[in-house]
Specification:
This protein has 149 residues and is an alpha+beta fold. It has one domain. The protein has a 4-stranded antiparallel sheet with strand order 1-4-2-3. Strand 2 and strand 3 form a beta hairpin. It is globular and about 50 Å long. It starts with a helix and ends with a helix.
Length: 149
Amino acid sequence: MGRAPDEVDDVGPVDFLVVEFARGRSTFSGELAAELSRLSEEGLIRVLDLLVIQKAFDGSVEGFEVQDVGCDEIGPLESDLVDLLSTDDVDRLSAAMEPGSVAGVVVWENLWAAPFASAARRAGGQLIATGRIPIQDIVTSLEADEGSQ
């Protein structure tokens, strides 16, 4: 089910995240699902798509909807706005994965930023770049700064 064109003007920025779990080194306690639920319930995000990717040791890849792998606690969070992830996306995302691992993919709308994004569009602006700085880079930078003092 899609949105009417005038409703799209009110959509916030959309991000995705891929979290890889090495075989035998993950401990699913429900904490991830609880945090995703909290963010959704507090109106900070709207989950648009959820996917699990499994990469076998032979390099073969399978993508699963969360409902197909028993993630009952987060499945209901997924919006029926649009299915964003395709088979091609699964192939591209799995290229970064280690053989024998499993990854969770979350696509979400940043509801907290929707009013700003709408105002920018109404002012004639358009998003031309976005980025994210990995926490590992921040730690490395902080350590370098400490070492130079």
